[in-house]
Write a structure and sequence with these properties.
alpha/beta, Aspartate Aminotransferase, domain 1, Aspartate Aminotransferase, domain 2, eight-stranded mixed sheet, three-stranded antiparallel sheet, 15 strands, globular
Length: about 400
């Protein structure tokens, strides 16, 4: 008897995540064949030799004896209190540990907070380009992702008036990613104030993804969204993965601020969903207090002559020399989002180009349309490798574009 193939849920077909998709699987095949692949697809510091501070490791080891049991579904007290103190230091002096929830990375917390908020068909305003987790989590939880444009010609910053025109009675939340992944844009305070005002006037939950909050370059200044929000509900997301180079530890947090009385039932709903998975990873939560209260070594990497700073400079200068590329210089995070020049063919295939680059030059990048934009001339690469490796990667990309446009 012939048995039918098991079909996945139809909503999964709407999910994009090429960062670890078909191209990444092909890269793994090539590695098994003995090829060395320069993997520029994932912002994974440990894969490029950037390790978590030793003091964080010691904090985990010292507390292993207290980590065998399940922890509270909201996270252990020292971790939550440390995050609350960080917010107090930013001027939110009334922040308490009860406003903080610890999760298995920001990814889990994004899913939980959207699942507790959305009814079928509810809308979430998400930047385009976006980190595709936000669109995927919205769709998988029954919502509709409405993308507001952050165009390269405007420094990848949104137009608040355009954004406001997209708000409907079904809009429930406004997502802000700052510093931005994939573009590296850092939002000016005046722009954040306008977005906070939109949330207030239209009764939207502000969801501010700030996982790269301490990774800025040159004169760019990061402003925490929560410090600008009073008459609305704000959720801020952060964690150990990027600033503290501990991706595999899976420690993230979210903090409820603003109109807390109005958010109480919602916050408890998120907590109920968190209880279904019992608790997040306990051992690595012990590192949060040490991380936030200790020496901030990320500044060594982002200052001139630091690893991230010099890698960023290498990409900027290499793109300037390139015949076919242009770039809005990233001001924060750990990515660049170059674009093929306007003079190129209008039907440029970013996925096809990325596949050719992988096969011929053994360089893995992420096609720009994977970040929920229509312009197929972009691609994302991480700034984590050494400067000389990124220079060679840009040269390889430009040489392949010679073949494409000859």
């Amino acid at each position: 008897m012939t048995r039918n193939a098991i079909q996945p849920a139809s909503r999964v077909a709407e999910v994009r995540y090429e960062i670890r998709g078909r191209l990444a699987r092909r890269a793994a095949e090539l590695e098994r064949q003995g090829h060395e692949i320069l993997q520029l697809n994932v912002g994974n510091p440990g894969a490029f030799g950037l390790q978590a501070p030793e003091t964080m490791r010691q904090a985990v080891v010292r507390n292993l004896q207290d980590s065998d049991a399940y922890g509270p579904q909201t996270g252990i007290f020292p971790a939550r209190e440390a995050v609350a103190i960080r917010f107090q230091e930013r001027g939110l002096v009334d922040t308490r540990f009860g406003q903080v929830m610890i999760g298995n990375g920001v990814s889990e917390l994004v899913d939980l907070s959207l699942r507790a908020l959305l009814e079928p068909g509810d809308e979430v305003l998400i930047p385009a380009p976006d980190y595709p987790l936000w669109t995927a989590a919205t769709v998988l939880n029954g919502g509709r992702a409405v993308h507001y444009q952050c165009r390269a010609d405007n420094g990848f910053l949104p137009d608040p008036d355009e954004l406001e025109a997209q708000i409907t009675p079904r809009t429930r939340a406004l997502v802000v990613i700052n510093p931005n992944n994939p573009t590296g844009a850092v939002y000016p305070k005046a722009l954040l104030e306008r977005l906070a005002d939109l949330a207030r006037r239209h009764d939207l939950v502000l969801m501010s993804d700030e996982i790269y909050d301490a990774i800025t370059f040159d004169s760019a200044e990061f402003t925490p969204m929560a410090t600008l929000v009073e008459d609305a509900v704000c959720i801020t997301y952060g964690g150990l993965s990027k600033v503290y180079r501990a991706c595999g530890w899976r420690v993230g947090w979210m903090v409820f601020t603003g109109e807390l009385d109005r958010a109480e039932e919602y916050r408890l709903a998120v907590e109920k969903l968190a209880a279904l998975r019992l608790s997040s990873n306990v051992p690595t939560q012990w590192a949060v207090q040490t991380a936030l209260g200790g020496y901030q070594s990320i500044h060594e990497l982002t200052a001139p002559e630091g690893r991230l700073y010099e890698s960023r400079r290498a990409v900027i200068e290499s793109v300037k020399r390139a015949r076919h590329l242009e770039l809005v210089p990233p001001q924060g995070a750990m990515y660049a989002f170059p674009r093929v020049r306007q003079s190129a063919s209008a039907d440029f295939d970013d996925h096809g180009f990325a596949e050719r680059l992988l096969e011929h030059a053994h360089v893995l990048i992420v096609p720009g349309t994977s970040f929920n934009i229509a312009d197929s001339r972009h691609f994302r690469l991480t700034l984590l490798p050494e400067a000389h490796r990124l220079e060679r990667a840009i040269e390889a990309i430009d040489e392949l574009l010679d073949d494409v446009f000859q």
